[in-house]
């Protein structure tokens, strides 16, 4: 009976020791970290269409669980097409403090229509996320056409003005002629091609029909530039 009691006490001791060893192993093992919190972007550009030579401010707000995230260094990237590869241009940060909005802002001066994106690479606290692509369309800058105040019917004359960007970079410029009707309104008459030299467009035009005319410079929509039109020229009288 004494041997049996001793064996029982030994077994209980072994179980306790084993439990202690398992507990110590658990306490000494690595603690699993919580996964990074999900993040999302909201973009609010000042404008998505501008005239060549003008800039625009693009804003992206980063949040996690509806709370603003400020003070990170996020990437700002651009592409020349909507589906093109984004190239990182800058690192951008946002002010911190009690009134932080999590809004990351940057001013851009695109030379043509471009597509921008804010990107957060992620860390142990906040998961990675990219904003939607922000298109900024660029219209060429078109100066008001100049023309003579009067011309004889059938005589050639010149309509010209400024265009930026100019030769070899910007789009083709056409000259739209408008004729004054009996009610005093200017209605579409004809469209003429022009040539561009430097930053000047120029068209040689002949009109046989007498009347009063005005002109506009126009460009069409394209992959690099949005369409645009100038203001009206001064009036031209075509006489016999």
Keywords:
single chain, 240 residues, mainly beta, Immunoglobulin-like, six-stranded mixed sheet, 1 helix, 20 strands, 11% helix
Report on this model:
This protein has 240 residues and is mainly β. The chain has 2 domains: 40-139, Immunoglobulin-like; 141-239, Immunoglobulin-like, CATH 2.60.40.10. It contains 1 helix and 20 strands. The longest helix is centred in the N-terminal third of the chain and has 27 residues, at 2-28. The N and C termini lie far apart (141 Å). The model is unreliable at 13-23 (pLDDT under 50).
Short account of what is shown:
By secondary structure, the chain is mainly β.
CATH homology-level superfamily of the largest domain: Immunoglobulins
CATH architecture descriptor of the largest domain: Sandwich
Following the backbone from N to C, one meets helices and strands in this order, namely HEEEEEEEEEEEEEEEEEEEE
Q: The biggest beta sheet, please?
A: 6 strands, mixed
- Treating each run of at least 4 consecutive H or I residues as one helix, how many helices? 1
The proportion of residues in beta strands is: 35-45%
Structural class of the helices, strands and pairings? mainly beta
Quantity of strands, as a count: 20
How helical, in percent, are the residues? 10-25%
Using only C-alpha atoms, the radius of gyration works out to 35 Å
Average pLDDT confidence is 91
The CATH first-level class of the largest domain comes to Mainly Beta
From the 3D structure, determine the CATH topology of the largest domain.
Immunoglobulin-like
Give the SSE layout:
Elements: H1 2-28, E1 40-43, E2 49-51, E3 56-64, E4 67-68, E5 74-79, E6 87-92, E7 103-108, E8 114-120, E9 129-130, E10 134-139, E11 141-142, E12 150-152, E13 156-164, E14 174-180, E15 186-193, E16 195-197, E17 200-206, E18 211-219, E19 228-229, E20 236-239
Parallel strand pairs: 2-10, 12-20
Antiparallel strand pairs: 1-3, 3-4, 3-7, 5-6, 5-8, 8-9, 8-10, 11-13, 13-17, 14-15, 14-18, 16-17, 18-19, 18-20
């Amino acid at each position: 009976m004494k041997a049996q009691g001793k064996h029982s006490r030994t077994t209980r001791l072994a179980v306790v020791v084993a439990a202690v060893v398992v507990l110590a192993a658990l306490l000494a093992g690595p603690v699993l970290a919580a996964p990074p919190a999900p993040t999302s972007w909201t973009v609010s550009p000042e404008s998505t269409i501008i005239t060549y030579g003008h800039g625009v401010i693009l804003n992206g707000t980063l949040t996690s669980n509806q709370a603003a995230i400020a003070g990170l260094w996020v990437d700002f990237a651009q592409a020349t097409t909507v589906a093109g590869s984004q190239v990182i241009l800058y690192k951008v940060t946002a002010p911190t403090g009690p009134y932080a909005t999590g809004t990351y802002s940057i001013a851009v001066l695109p030379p043509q229509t471009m597509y921008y994106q804010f990107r957060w690479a992620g860390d142990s606290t906040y998961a990675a996320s990219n904003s939607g692509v922000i298109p900024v369309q660029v219209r060429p800058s078109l100066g008001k056409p100049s023309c003579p105040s009067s011309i004889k019917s059938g005589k050639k004359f010149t309509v010209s003005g400024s265009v930026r960007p100019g030769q070899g970079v910007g789009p083709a410029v056409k000259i739209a002629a408008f004729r004054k009707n009996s009610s005093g309104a200017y209605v579409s008459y004809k469209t003429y091609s022009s040539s561009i030299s430097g930053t000047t467009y120029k068209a040689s035009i002949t009109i046989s029909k007498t009347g009063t005319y005005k002109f506009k410079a126009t460009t069409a929509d394209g992959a690099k530039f949005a369409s645009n039109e100038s203001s009206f020229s001064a009036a031209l009288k075509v006489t016999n």
